[in-house]
């Protein structure tokens, strides 16, 4: 198997792409400006539309629950045995 040639130049490991950083900053400014206008915008909507917007925004505040299927190998489990014993009645003979 041939070895890969060593990488020379370029961004270092973990360094973000400059375009991505700039784009995120622009989008963040736009979102921040719109969030400030959100209460006024919501008040101007019909109740049905307002409820729809609020429901869509909730997804960003509260994480969705997902079902998880867990499959474990059967050999990891040992059978559990429970024996029920009838209690002895206390009588005057035991005193």
Structural class: mainly alpha
Task: Tell me the β content.
Answer: under 5%
Mean pLDDT: 82
Query: How many H/I helical runs?
Result: 2
Measured distance between first and last alpha carbons = 86 Å
Instruction: Please give the share of residues in helix.
Output: 40-55%
Unreliable stretches (pLDDT < 50, length at least 5) are none
How do the SSEs run, as a string of H and E?
Answer: HH
Number of extended strands: 0
Gist of the model:
This protein is mostly helical and 95 residues long. It has 2 helices and no strands. The termini are far apart.
How would you characterize this protein structure?
With 95 residues, this protein is mainly alpha-helical. It has a domain at 38-64. It is 41% helix and 0% strand. The chain is built from two helices and no strands. It has helices spanning 18-44, 47-58. It is flat, with a radius of gyration of 32 Å. The mean pLDDT is 82.
Key structural traits:
mainly alpha; 0% strand
Write the layout of secondary structure elements.
Layout: H1 18-44, H2 47-58
């Amino acid at each position: 198997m041939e070895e890969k040639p060593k990488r020379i130049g370029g961004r270092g490991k973990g360094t973000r792409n400059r375009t991505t950083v700039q784009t995120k900053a622009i989008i963040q400014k736009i979102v921040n400006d719109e969030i400030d206008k959100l209460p006024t915008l919501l008040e101007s909507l019909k109740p049905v539309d307002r409820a729809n917007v609020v429901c869509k925004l909730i997804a960003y505040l509260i994480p969705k629950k997902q079902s998880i299927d867990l499959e474990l190998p059967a050999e990891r489990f040992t059978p559990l045995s429970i024996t029920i014993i009838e209690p002895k009645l206390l009588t005057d003979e035991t005193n």
